[in-house]
Amino acid sequence: MEFSAKQIAAVVQGEIVGDENATVSTFAKIEEGVPGAITFLSNPKYTPYLYETKASIVLVNKDFVPEHEVKATLIKVDNAYECLAKLLTLYEQSKPKRTGIDPLAYVAPTAQVGKDVYLAPFACVEDHAVVGDGTQLHPHAVVGAGARVGKDCILYPHATVYHDCRIGDRCTLHAGSVVGSDGFGFAPTPNGYEKIPQIGIAILEDDVEIGANTCVDRATMGATVIHKGVKLDNLVQIAHNDEIGSHTVMAAQVGIAGSTKVGEWCMFGGQVGVAGHIAIGNHVNLGAQSGVPGSIKEGSNLIGTPPMELKPYFKSQAIFRKLPDMYMQLNQLQKELDKLKEQLKSENE
What we know:
Blueprint: E1 3-4, H1 5-12, E2 15-17, E3 23-24, E4 26-27, E5 37-41, H2 47-50, E6 57-61, E7 73-77, H3 80-94, E8 100-101, E9 106-107, E10 112-113, E11 118-119, E12 124-125, E13 130-131, E14 136-137, E15 142-143, E16 148-149, E17 154-155, E18 160-161, E19 166-167, E20 172-173, E21 178-181, E22 186-189, E23 192-195, E24 201-204, E25 209-210, E26 215-217, E27 223-226, E28 231-232, E29 237-238, E30 243-244, E31 249-250, E32 255-256, E33 261-262, E34 267-268, E35 273-274, E36 279-280, E37 285-286, E38 291-292, E39 301-303, E40 308-309, H4 310-321, H5 323-348
Parallel strand pairs: 4-5, 5-6, 6-7, 8-11, 9-12, 10-13, 11-14, 12-15, 13-16, 14-17, 15-18, 16-19, 17-20, 18-21, 19-24, 20-25, 21-26, 24-27, 25-28, 26-29, 27-30, 28-31, 29-32, 30-33, 31-34, 32-35, 33-36, 34-37, 35-38, 37-39
Antiparallel strand pairs: 1-3, 2-7, 22-23, 39-40
């Protein structure tokens, strides 16, 4: 399908600079723009590509003023990145949805499957499970016994929802992700470690997305809860009895130990590690590879292990790089001091 600059501007409430009849049928990065593509500019370091791109339409922020001639049609908006996300969502929603239950899918006699559901070959819905209207299960996706998956969800290949767990509406579980695997609970005994049964569940509220091979463990008792709008990247580990506040986002390889509460609208960079039985406040930002041993107050912006404010952290890193030279200087000073002490001792004898 083709869309004109005029049509797009109406959707994003933008101002056109150039040809309002310019049309596009695809998306592209600004450095890879081709005729018939729409792209965007929000990061200033990509500005040089604007003057070279072959894309037909470029979304830019309203305060952007070009320094050279721009061949593409510009659409000025409040936030180019957000507008692109909106257009991509509309584009994705315009694609026809697959529906129907493949003969090779398995649906238990006691399971409930809603309207317009798609069950791919080898998808599995076990006893007393519920799958909501419009939900898609791709090959080898599993909804365990007694589990509930809401409306308009997508479970990609090998995504697994264990028994009795709950998934809200419009959730996406990418390939290999697991909701409701056992929490890591073992009691040490003289003969080894005895498994503690994990009898709780895991709950994902509405509009949650979890990446490929991400795991949300079930609770020992009660529930591990991922609140509304949370986005988890690939290879994230959420341990038993954790609670992740609404609209929090976590990049790849984040690990949250058990019984920890994370607040709303937090942002964790890649490989952040958080200890168990602590509380992270709302609106906390943690830089990549931060190690968090204790609770953090609301609104903190930290990085490092243990985490510290950004300015002291980067000052410390600058000093850290100089440590070898400082160590040599310190040794030299120590030698000179020892020599002076010897001289003073000789003079006083």
